[in-house]
């Protein structure tokens, strides 16, 4: 049997896990939610909910992963005692494999757009107008080209293994992402209109702090920003040494994720108000800040157009940043089905990575050819419905199926006196009672109230 991969250092794990959490949604979703939900009031609620909802579930995934030393399908069976629980665990694991593969399939398409816009900024510098038009045109040929390019990049990294591929590239890409964000924040903050953006971002509107929509939005952002439910963190946890303190590692990942989300807001919101000062429309008909893909592919490029020749260089750096954010997330998603394939079929990592990667890329092609019908549907089924329910199942297995003494013994490896800590006095109760109820409330609101 092949030796199981392992992160070679604590920093390597933190950067890889934080990279998994820091994705495209973090950079374009968090800032607009902040601006639309009371500015710093939303940030405060988000910070609180990250550590009382998302962090406990993150810890559940890490503990299950390290204890089982296996993929999600096998892991949930290993912590189950009865046959029924084992079957439900296996079913939950397979469900997660399907969901993460579908998420990755549309993620490859969106990440391909980022690469296309990155190249488009370069073509503008050289005056290649025909190439520039093709790169920004929503065509099937462009979507296929760049989604496959992104798929190739993702497969290449995962095929090289845990320490030589995932850890090595996360350790390179995450500092690069951080530097690029800081450079762009500095540049945008010096532009006309940025001060208004900083006010919109940092000045709290406490009248909204008890709003149900604000709390649920912050809860959703906290939950989804940490890549919870689909097994990415469980798999990464299975590659962590028994000597490491999981409580500290989990908190470190959550802090890095929160930090980069907040920094994204420091970039995007002032950038939007700079765009406004340059005559770009940044509010929709309802008076809310434009968000999502319209923000990234309409508002921000329009801002770059107002910057003259410097705009092309700033645009290039921005879309390099977005591509890096996408890549650090995609490698963690691909690792979930790859790990299962390696452990269930005994295929070598390289073969499994290419087999699964190409399969997911084929799903991307199906979405591209049936874009209007399937793209939005797949996003809704996976992120809106499946992810919260998978998170709920992880809470049930950790809080109700797995024996508490066994959990404690696993966490004590690397944290000798954890049973006397505040964490152990609070976390088991949270993951058993509070988190499942909160996730159900989120799911109910999402399905029936939105």
UniProtKB/TrEMBL annotation:
Localisation: Membrane
Keyword hit for Magnesium: no
The keyword Endoplasmic reticulum is annotated on this UniProt entry: no
Protein's name in the database: Sodium-dependent transporter
Superkingdom assignment: Bacteria
NCBIfam families xref list: Na_transp
Main location: membrane
Membrane topology, from the record: Multi-pass membrane protein
Listed GO CC annotations: membrane
Keywords: Membrane, Transmembrane, Transmembrane helix, Transport
Residues passing through the membrane, by range: 12-31, 43-64, 94-119, 144-162, 174-194, 214-239, 246-269, 313-334, 354-379, 385-402, 429-447
Pfam family for this entry, one: SNF
Segments forming a coiled coil: none
Alphabetical list of InterPro entries matching this protein: Na/ntran_symport (IPR000175), SNS_sf (IPR037272), YocR/YhdH-like (IPR047218)
């Amino acid at each position: 049997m092949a030796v199981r991969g392992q992160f070679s250092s604590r920093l390597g794990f933190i950067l890889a896990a934080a990279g998994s959490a820091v994705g495209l949604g973090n950079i374009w979703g968090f800032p607009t939610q902040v601006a639309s939900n009371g500015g710093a009031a939303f940030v405060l609620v988000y910070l609180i909910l990250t550590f009382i909802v998302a962090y406990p579930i993150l810890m559940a995934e890490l503990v299950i992963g390290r204890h089982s030393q296996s993929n999600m399908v096998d892991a949930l069976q290993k912590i189950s005692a009865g046959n029924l629980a084992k079957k439900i665990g296996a079913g939950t694991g397979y469900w997660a494999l399907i969901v993460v593969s579908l998420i990755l399939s549309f993620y490859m398409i969106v990440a391909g757009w980022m690469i296309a816009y990155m190249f488009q900024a370069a073509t503008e510098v050289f005056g290649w107008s025909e190439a520039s038009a093709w790169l920004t045109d929503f065509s099937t040929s462009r979507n296929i080209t760049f989604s496959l390019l992104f798929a190739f990049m993702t497969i290449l990294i995962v095929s090289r293994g845990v320490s030589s591929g995932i850890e090595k590239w996360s350790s390179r890409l995450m500092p690069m992402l951080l530097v690029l964000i800081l450079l762009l924040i500095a540049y945008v903050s010096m532009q006309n209109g940025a001060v208004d953006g900083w006010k919109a971002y940092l000045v709290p509107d406490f009248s909204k702090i008890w709003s149900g929509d604000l709390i649920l939005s912050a809860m959703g952002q906290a939950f989804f920003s940490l890549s919870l439910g689909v097994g990415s963190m469980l798999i990464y946890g299975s590659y962590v040494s028994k000597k490491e303190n999981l409580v500290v590692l989990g908190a470190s990942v959550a802090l890095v994720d929160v930090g980069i989300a907040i920094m994204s807001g420091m970039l995007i919101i002032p950038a939007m108000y700079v765009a406004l000062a340059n005559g770009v429309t940044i509010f929709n008909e309802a008076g809310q800040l434009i968000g999502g893909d319209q923000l990234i592919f309409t508002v921000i490029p329009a801002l770059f157009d107002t910057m003259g020749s410097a705009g092309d260089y700033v645009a290039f750096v921005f879309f390099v940043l977005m591509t890096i954010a996408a890549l650090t997330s995609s490698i963690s998603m691909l690792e979930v089905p790859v790990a299962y394939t390696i452990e269930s079929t005994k295929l070598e990592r390289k073969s499994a990575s290419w087999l699964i990667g190409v399969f997911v890329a084929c799903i991307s092609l199906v979405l591209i050819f049936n874009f209007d019908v399937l793209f939005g549907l797949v996003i809704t089924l996976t992120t809106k419905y499946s992810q919260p329910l998978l998170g709920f199942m992880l809470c049930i297995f950790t809080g109700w199926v797995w024996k508490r003494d066994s959990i404690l013994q696993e966490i004590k490896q690397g944290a000798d006196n954890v049973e006397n800590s505040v964490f152990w006095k609070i976390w088991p109760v949270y993951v058993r009672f509070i988190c499942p109820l909160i996730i159900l409330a989120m799911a109910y609101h999402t399905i029936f109230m939105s």
